[in-house]
Design brief:
By secondary structure, the protein is α+β, with helices and mostly antiparallel strands. About 30% of the residues lie in helices and about 25% in strands. The chain has 2 domains: about 260 residues, no CATH class; about 240 residues, no CATH class. The chain has a 20-stranded antiparallel β-sheet, with helices on both faces.
Length: about 575
Amino acid sequence: MKSKKSSLVLTLGTAAALAVGGGTAYWFFSQRGAGPADLLVGSEVVPQDALMAVSVTTDAGQWQQMREFGTKQSQTALDQNLAQLRDRFLTANGFNYDKDIRPWVGKEVTLAFLPAQIPPVTNPPTNPPPALQQQATIAVLPIQDPLKAKQVLEQPRTGGGSALTERTYKGVQIRESKGPTLQPFSAAVLDGKFLLVTTDPKATERAIDTYQGAPSLSSTPGYRQSLSKIATEQPFGKLYVNLPAAAAITATNSGRNLSAENLAQVQQNQGLAATMKLEPEGIRFQSVSWLKPDSQKRYEVQNSARSMPERLPADTLIMASGGNLQKFWQDYSQGASANPISPINPEALRSGLQSTVGLDLDKDLLAWMDGEFSLALVAAPAGEPANLPFSLVFMVKASDRRAAEKSLTQLNQAMTERYKFKVEESKVGNQTVTNWVLPAGGPAITYGWLSGDVVFLTLGAPIAASLVPQPANSLANSPVFQKTVPTKPNPNNGHFFVNVERAINAKSLPLFPLPPANRDLIAAVQSIGVTAAISDDRTARYDVFAAIQKAGKPNPLPSPQVPAASPPPAEPVPVSPSPSP
């Protein structure tokens, strides 16, 4: 799993390495099977079963803007990674981007990742079974100037220590590295329009088959229509994820086997696509996911999330909201069994509620929770003890207040009889709230009602006064929320917001322990906002904005250096078969 992740990171970086210092060349896009300009370049070369494809710009100005984001530490880390990737994939093979790539390459380059091939089953089976073959990567570089490309690519190269061999496949000449090399490659030019570079000869053949008529990314159902919905001018990057294939790989890597029923459910999804655009204060993503044309699954078009950010105080650090909790939980429960990384096990939650407080999740709670809802982390008011720095706040609009009050009464009884909480009422302003207090002290639980039949519950620091009857300064009106959370799509089905600067970087909360490798990256982020909506019965839309610090003009990248080649692997020692008994 670790090697696969490392391989993925390295191959993603190939596009970055190819684009560092890039120019403003005219993009030549083949009309053979091509769609509108918002498609990933070279979509007709990428096999349809690719796990993921990402396209990045080669525009020097955009890369300069990208490198200005972050802190000095994250800026330095990014530049080091870019230099290492440049040296590994270009310098080691005798290439210089400015001289050898920039003069002929188009406005974007695309990387695609093919699923690992499962080795054939032997008879009798081998013990241990053969490992999966390494994931193959395809790079597609559109050729703007075929003459310059021909001159550059036919020049003999020094560096890398490996010879090149040539062969022909279906009329296409292929050049491949031979012998020890830092990064083995196989390359071919397709009709003078694309330079195809892969990490595996078989992947090269598959890409040629695709270009010559086999199913491609560009012919994936819904691909063209979905990307047209998120088209943006001068994007920095574009992304496509094959959701069924990615889910199957995730399940395999997690050690979980999907049942036939769960696998069929996963297969109803088709894809996810996104565009990435650089803005003065951060990075904006527009994304869309869609179902297959023949899927039995349908989305319910109900974009009714409106008021939750107005009911939360401006000191809210993290917030997730939605339009219908009952529907959300139904959808989540159906998909959780087929999702190996689901954070909550629905059945475990159901049985846990039944055993701890004697309530049936579906009958006693979700039955009346079919309205707007939110779950948030709110900073404690000034002057509160340091051991209670925040409060967890849950809100939901009740469709049946009588049923809701019955359930709350049952909770009161369970808290008193089973856990010896002291249940008492108090006043917040002119409104009555109920408190569950442990005799020995500690964090209290408070619940009450807001206007519009919205029930709230808090756990931790006492913040009820910030909620009742309405926050004097709401989250919706806070500058950081307004700057971060996208205003579109509108109407929408909910938001996600995290004030990274206060919740994580300030270290004021004992949450989210981060691996050392990720701390510099997170330290550069100020806040993240997401707005979601259901576009139609087969399409969901998610817009994301990440507000990021700016470290200013970056230094030039380190000078190119040829990395030391790894020694070739030792030849296996032949083992004579044991004599028969």
